[in-house]
Amino acid sequence: MVEYNKAILEKANEAITEGDNEGFLSFCTDDTEWTFVGDQTLRGKEAVRRYMATAYIEPPKFMVENLISEGDFVTALGKIRLKNSDGKMADYSYCDVWRFRDGKMAELKAFVIKTD
After folding, report:
1. What are the tens digits of pLDDT across the range 16-26?
2. Secondary structure (3-state) at 68
3. Is pLDDT above 70 for 1?
4. Which residues does UniProt call coiled coil (predicted)?
5. Contact (CB, 8 A) for 97 and 68
6. Residue 88 belongs to what domain range?
7. 59, 16 in Cβ contact below 8 A?
8. How many of the other CB atoms lie within 10 Å of CB of 93?
9. pLDDT digit string (tens) for 41-82?
């Protein structure tokens, strides 16, 4: 199951980088909950869909440095580059801790720091 969860996260991230938000969301539970530590919490797939529509003005670019899995959890450490609301690219370092349930991403706890 550990390797299966890693593969699911890799496929989901691939969908995002291709601009396929709905493809990404197909890997999430309907009641998925995303917590951006120190910022906001999104509850449910529709809230995540709305967030993605504004946060991913164009597909983000990921560089995963480490992907660590144990039990129902997969942790991704890396860098992400996003176009922000003023149209400029911004660089971030992140640590995402995903909890899986029944083969889908049920919960995210994200630690994100702007680096540029």
Report:
1. 999 999 999 99
2. strand
3. no
4. none
5. no
6. 2-114
7. yes
8. 15
9. 999 999 999 999 988 888 999 899 999 999 999 999 999 998
- Contact indicator for 107, 32 with CB cutoff of 8 Å: yes
Strands ordered across the beta sheet of 61-70: 40-43, 28-36, 104-114, 89-101, 73-83, 61-70
Amino acid identity, residue 20? Answer: D
DSSP 3-state of 51:
helix
Angular region, 71: left φ>0, alpha ψ -120 to 50, beta rest:
left
- CATH number, residue 18: 3.10.450.50
Residue 85 backbone dihedrals phi, psi, to 5 degrees:
-65, -20
DSSP of 4-48: HHHHHHHHHHHHHHTT-HHHHHTTEEEEEEEEETTTEEEESHHHH
pTM above 0.70, yes or no: yes
